[in-house]
Specification:
It is built from no helices and 20 strands. It has one domain: membrane protein fhac: a member of the omp85/tpsb transporter family (Porin, Beta Barrel), CATH 2.40.160.50. It is an all-beta fold and 312 residues long. The strands form three sheets. It has a 16-stranded antiparallel sheet that branches. The protein has a two-stranded antiparallel ribbon with strand order 12-13.
Length: 312
Amino acid sequence: MGDNGIGIRMDFNGEFEESNIFLSYMYLPHRIDYGFALYNFANYSLYRSRDPYTNQNIYFENREYEAGVFLLARYPFSRFSRLDFEQSFYRYRSEWHEWNNITNKWFQLNSETDYIYMPQLGLIFDNALYGVTGPMAGSKLAGFIRHSFSQKENTFTTVYTDLRHYTLLSNRFAFANRLVFGVSEGDRPERFSLYGLTDVRGFDDRSVHGNRKAMANIELRVPLVDVFRLGFPLPITITNIRGSFFTDIGAVWYNDNFRGMKAGKLDDMKLGFGFGPRVNLGFFIVSMDIAWASDFVNHSKPSYYFLIGEDF
């Protein structure tokens, strides 16, 4: 608790432009909180098509870069609810690349740069009660609407909701449920994916995306190891190791082209399940998930995820 908040989130990928960096400051002594941030984001979307002459797959990659400043004003209605007004000014660059099977390298096709202003209004409710590694009771509800203004045809309007509810079964067991819905429209609508640590775990195909999204996450959070003590080579004691058993299911698609299942298998809908331990080391929480993807007929090999941060 204090009058000032400083945040740093970084994900380095070799070069500065290819990395995700978010540096923020919040001024907190009054009822209305103010903040700003400097950021650089990089996003990659993979596309696949079929060559009509050779009948071979052709791969394209869209690389999107955003670098700018973020401003925030936060007004609380009560201890548990607030209104967020955000503004972003950033430079947007989009590059299209094609995979060359001869050189085994990406070949750049074109590049476009634009400058964008994007306001966002968000309504938040949060009365969650936390355990050792994340929320265990209560709810978190968030709804956002944002619109972009650009020099070129890169405008969009997006509505996004994230609804989370936690049910405490006993002092140390809890169910966590999450529902996500998103819609984006415009000249360049935002693309949603299911790839990542906070989406459908076990599903690793970056070529699946769309301007519509629906997703559900269900977790059973349990105590795993109360005390882990190591005597050699270092006397280390770790307490309160928690575990999570989860199932994730979601879909992303474009406009009205949704197809949930085909030939008895999941099509646009993607399913992942697995488990993993979590441990609170005092300064941060470390999580590891082992996940499999399934279409009800085939199952993938396990995917492994490491995260520094609390459960959703």
